[in-house]
Each structure stands twice: as C-alpha cells, then as structure tokens.
Design brief:
α1 packs parallel to α12 and α5 packs across α6. By secondary structure, the protein is α/β, with parallel strands linked by helices. The strands form two sheets. Strands 8-7-6-9-10-11-12 form a seven-stranded parallel sheet, sandwiched between helices. A five-stranded parallel sheet has the order 2-1-3-4-5, sandwiched between helices. The protein contains twelve helices and twelve strands. The chain is 38% helix and 17% strand. Bound molecules: 3-phosphoglyceric acid. The site of 3-phosphoglyceric acid has 10 residues, from loops.
Length: 307
C-alpha cells in the first residue's frame, strides 16, 4: 500500500493531523506519523519504506533522501524549502514542492504582534510608541509580505514595499508605495519587515550598509530566516544606535549577547512560532497531503520547486 510519512520534529496541531489522516485514508493510502523526533536517524529509518514525505522545517539532507528507496515526492508544508537538499532530490528524480500561502496569515499576524510588542517596550510598563503613521517597509512582497501590508494598513501605518520579482501592478493594486531599490526601502522606513527566503544570494544580506540607513526609531522585524541577517552588522548597529530594535521569530546565533546587553530592544521567540496556529497547520498540512495525492494519482506537479 502507498505510504505517506508525516515527519514533524515540531508537530502539527492534532486537529491538523486528524485532517491529514482523513485525506490520506480517503485516497486509499496509509499514514505513517513520526513526531517530536530528536535525531535524523529516526527520519532515515522511517523514510525507508514510504512513497511520499510531508515535513515542516525538518532537515531533508542527501542522506535522508538516499534512504528513501521508494520515495517519489517531498512536500514542505509551508513556504521556505531551504531545509531540503533540492539537488539530491532532483538527482534521484524526486519531486519537491511547497504549499505557498497556506500558513502566511499566521506569520503575518505574528509579525504585527511582534511589532506592537517591541514598540511597547516588551510590555514592561514603560512608555512606548504607536505604529500609526509610522513607515513600514516590506522587504519582499510574497504571500506573507502582502498580508503584513494589509494588516499594517489597518494600524494606520504607511506601507512601502520592495520586490524586484513581483509585478508592480500587484503592489499598486494593494495601494502600497513601491520603492525602486532595497537601499531606498531601508532609508525611508523606520520599521522593516523581512520576507525574503534564505538562499545563496540572501544569506547575510541584511548588513551594516542597509541597517545604518534606517531612520530614527529603526525597528527590524524578522519572521523570515535567521540566516539572512549579517550578525556582525547587527551587533555593530546595536552598539552604535540606542534607538535600534530587533525582533525575531527565531534566535540568532548571537542571542545570548543581545539578551544580556539590549533588554527592551531585542526579543526572539525560543522556537519558530510564525506558523504555529491550528489554522495554519490545517491549511498547510491538508494542502500538502492533497498535493501528494494529486501528484501520485494524476501526475500534477503544481508547486514543484526543483524543476
Ligand atoms: C515556513 O517557511 O513556512 C515558515 O517558516 C514556517 O515553518 P514551520 O512550519 O517550521 O513552523
């Protein structure tokens, strides 16, 4: 029987697992569940007999892929697929997909929540700042960026965006101000919300040059990936500018230094929290399952990322 493995070191909400199970069973397949595993050997063992794999931020290395003797498809239930060795998958003819948009609202809500939190001095009883009338720069206007823009407008923020890969008309339609360079975005906006993926071009790209351009009250919000930040630059900016704040949905490597030195100006979630809602888990988990069923039964490759 065709087997679908759901391997989640950080499990989906149980209601999402129920939905995935129903979809798998209705398709006539069998669900194999591996949750909260602590070492890659468990994944290597579990993948040996399955036809398809659903993961979140779980690391799918070449070793894992090679162990999947019957593996035909990997679906990352979420947006970023920097955790999959795409070359290894392609080399073995295995299709890799993501589920764009399915967990974006959860991440966007968290970005705004984190903006409020840091702007109100981490709720420690000090006088803070409001978001209304502040300039927010959306760095990359994909699914999450678009939703952050929409919610931020409800707060009365002035929303700017930079994304060379998105048609201007998309941003214009959303009534978002388009800037022509990343430098312009950073020099215009005191709040910057990051929505770029982590890849060879973007890793460590948020550097001193960009951060030092930000106007007074500079606040950087990272619900993307820790790897896109140049942490030496981050520490330099914190040292130079007492107005600079950083809030991140995943701790940077220099977390302990920032915590000890910059109380009230820095916060990070202990574990990536953006997509941690029942709604996002249901949306992304069931979408991933349906994409697998559709691929295995009809050869549908929509959302393939290793073409
Ligand atoms: C994503 O890329 O979809 C988000 O970062 C969420 O990741 P998670 O499923 O590991 O929480």
């Amino acid at each position: 029987m065709t087997k679908i493995l759901v391997a989640t070191e950080k499990p989906f909400a149980s209601v999402a697992v129920d939905g995935i199970k129903k979809t798998v069973t209705e398709a006539g397949y069998e669900l194999v569940l591996l949750e909260k595993y602590t070492d890659s050997n468990s994944l290597i063992k579990a993948i040996a007999e399955v036809d398809a794999l659903i993961i979140r931020s779980d690391k799918v290395t070449k070793e894992v892929i090679d162990a999947g003797k019957n593996l035909k498809i990997i679906v990352r239930a979420g947006a970023g697929y920097d955790n999959i060795d795409l070359n290894a998958a392609t080399a073995k003819g295995i299709v890799a997909m993501n589920t764009p948009g399915q967990n974006s609202n959860a991440v966007a809500e968290l970005a705004l929540g984190m903006m409020v939190y840091i702007s109100r001095g981490c709720f420690k009883g000090v006088s803070g700042n409001e978001l209304k009338n502040k300039k927010l720069g959306i760095h990359a206007y994909g699914w999450v960026g678009k939703m952050v823009a929409n919610i931020a407008k409800g707060f009365g923020m002035q929303v700017y965006a930079y994304d060379p890969f998105v048609e201007k008309s998309v941003m214009e339609k959303d009534d978002v101000k388009i800037v022509s360079s990343v430098e312009e975005l950073y020099s215009t906006c005191s709040y910057i919300s990051l929505h770029i993926p982590a890849n060879e071009k973007t890793k460590r790209s948020i550097n001193y040059d960009l951060l030092s351009k930000m106007p007074k009250g500079a606040t950087l919000i990272n619900t993307a990936r820790k790897e896109v930040i140049n942490e030496d630059s981050l520490q330099k900016i914190f040292t130079e500018r007492t107005d600079f704040k950083y809030i991140s949905d995943i701790a940077p490597d220099c977390h302990n230094i920032l915590v000890s030195k910059y109380e009230g100006r820095y916060f990070s979630t202990p574990k990536k929290q953006g997509a941690e809602t029942a709604e996002a888990n249901i949306n992304a988990g069931i979408a991933a399952t349906k994409q697998i069923v559709n691929f295995l039964k009809n050869g549908d490759r929509t959302y393939q990322v290793n073409k």
